[in-house]
């Protein structure tokens, strides 16, 4: 990566660091306050659902407004949401303010993520995109590594509302780094074409038509949705599984999250330095995540859960590199924003669904059994998609042979 792009990746890192502090706080504080796994699952559902529902809207917006401007708005407004949420808690009280501000910050995070997806091919148009994705994921993962550590450290000193205030400062620093990069690099985002006349739902219809008709895009969407079943149930239950069912401390929980992120950094460095076939990346990551879910859910010992957790978290970003590089090759550039927004929504709707299932069924069945069931469901979806894809290729080969 060129020197004048360092501030850009620094901005990605600091924004992810701040976002990860919030993601760490919500399930842990809710579980410590209520002592119920079901409330952690419902809090995760409320926290994550809004951020996925707005992806199509922000995707269409990126085809009309400069994605750089949208990224800056995302980071600045998130800072003021943190400050406003803390002020509301001080004035009115209630743990709901933490969930509400995290949900709103999640919506704004979605705006930044889609804008980044649109900007990356423009910024690094002359470089291998799979390697660029690995570096951007590395910036994310460094934030993921340090986020839980920073949150646990600050929680040892301050109450959670002070930690949220510090998170707002981090968002302001991320925006400052992005502004510095924009001025030093001289980057100018492509001017979006004027909006075509038509009904306001036209961008959504175009994106859905691409999902249904573009060769290979449905397969990518289904595989990502299946993978996010396991990611969702892991994120929704990890605090309760570690600190509750396995009776470990919050510092152990932060250490486990950090270990998973470190493993991911090592995997992404390997991807960035080696030109692995995309299909190999996808297959290895998918199988590892599925196996990790079964191990984490079936194990009765903390070390067994840790092994499964590390497989899930460690290979998640490898699978993301495969998914993002695959859809970048499939989606037309002029419709990239709107289609990516819809695809991300379809990919990730299974995450809040997993959180909702935790909230509904955790009181009736063991949480570990639910994790195993969703992991097996992921494996079945992946096998079905692979068989269908193989049959389609065979039919096309026979047709050409005739």
From TrEMBL:
InterPro entries: MFS, MFS_trans_sf
Superkingdom, taxonomy of origin: Bacteria
Keywords recorded for this protein, A-Z: Cell membrane, Membrane, Transmembrane, Transmembrane helix, Transport
Location of this chain's protein in the cell: Cell membrane
CC terms in the record's Gene Ontology section: plasma membrane
Stretches that traverse the bilayer: 7-31, 37-61, 162-182, 220-246, 252-271, 278-297, 303-323, 344-363, 369-391
Single GO molecular function: transmembrane transporter activity
Keyword Ribonucleoprotein tagged: no
Pfam families assigned: MFS_1 (PF07690)
Entry-linked SUPFAM superfamilies: MFS general substrate transporter (SSF103473)
Membrane topology classification: Multi-pass membrane protein
Family matches, as CDD domains: MFS_MefA_like (cd06173)
Protein name: MFS transporter
